[in-house]
Amino acid sequence: MAQPITTLSEFIIEREKDFPFASGDLSQLLTSIRLAAKLVNREVNKAGLVNEILGETEQHSVNVQGEKQQKLDVYANERFINAMRNQGAVCGVASEENDAHIVFDHPVSAGGKYVVAMDPLDGSSNIDVNVSIGTIFSIYRRLNDAEVTVEDFLQPGSAQVAAGYVVYGSSTMLVYTTGNGVNGFTLDPSIGVFCLSHPNMRIPENGSIYSVNEGNYFDFPEQARNYIDACKKKKMSARYIGSLVADFHRNLLKGGIYMYPGTTAKPEGKLRLVYEANPLALLIEQAGGAATDGKQRILDIKPGKLHQRTPLFIGSKAMVEEAMRR
Ligand code: AHM
Ligand code: MG
Question: Quick one: what percent of the chain has pLDDT higher than 90?
Fold first, then answer.
């Protein structure tokens, strides 16, 4: 007999009752993210075919990080922002692609009690070469009922209400947590529905994969170099896609560590605390793993600014702890 299928929308509704006094707003918000993910997935899948989608924007625009924006970055950013704007639960969005946060015109009386931080298309340098990319999102409750300010986005990661990612790979998956375990859903493209494929995901306590851009080895601090040397001595497997979501997803399933340490030129590293490190740190802790900046737990850091960067060591608990001891 065929196994019964649980769809993402059924699962979201089912889990709503885990939240006392839930009004359904978070469910509505997750549903909007699901829809935007499907739209972006559709465009990602035809990226190789369509000139307007592949490559850099015609204006060769540069985002706030000083990086060239790809067309798909812009498309994904718009889709996710519109998905948030179109429903009342979200009062503001901060995106890695925008200089400042965006405030929506939703009075709190209309139910807007959340803000969302996101990296709409992570790993965008991989778009043109048909390698997995992803979307990362992070949801916070607003600090108060006044107009949304940047402070609403600068809460420590431990205050996240929910977080997740979409990986657009050999199949498309949406993985999320509301602080009650991690669940993964695979998109069945024939019916356009995310189906529960990875219930209650747990990262192995230890692993044999290390993921780091070793081209930067000589610029890493001693602690990171010592740990990488230890990985090599143990003959671990080096696996680095250069798409954080994809590297993270593989390590979550198989066990491993992803590292982006600071370098001599950039001691704060490359990855963004609010858009990348915090959501993935919540997911990894919920799955039994750990995330640090080499010194302290990522989720304990109070961000000072929206686009703040942080070194990141994330993955199997035993591996992250060993990297900290080096
Ligand atoms: P992005 O958000 O601009 O795409 O940058 C983040 C990406 C990660 O997905 C990836 O792990 C990392 O940058 C790769 O950086 P590098 O090429 O320096 O190894
Ligand atoms: Mg990005």
Answer: 71
With a 6 Å cutoff on the Cβ, whether 123 touches ligand 1 is: yes
Distance CA(260)–CA(314), nearest Å, equals 9
Q: Is the pTM of this model over 0.85?
A: yes
**Amino acid occupying residue 245:** V
Residue 17 or 117, more confident: 117
123 Cα–ligand 1 center, Å: 5
Residue 108 to residues 15, 104, 115, Cα–Cα distance (Å): 24, 11, 12
Ligand 1 center to 124 CA (angstroms): 8
All domains of the chain in start order, with CATH: 8-198 (3.30.540.10), 209-325 (3.40.190.80)
Minimal-distance CA residue to ligand 1 atom 12: 242
Show the tokens assigned to 97: 């692609």
Nearest CA to ligand 1 atom 7: 123
| pLDDT at residue number 24 | 80
Share the mean pLDDT of the chain. 90
CA atoms of 123 and 111, how far apart (whole Å): 34
Quickly state the pLDDT bin for 3 (edges 50, 70, 90).
Answer: confident
Q: Is the CB of 69 under 6 A from ligand 1?
A: no
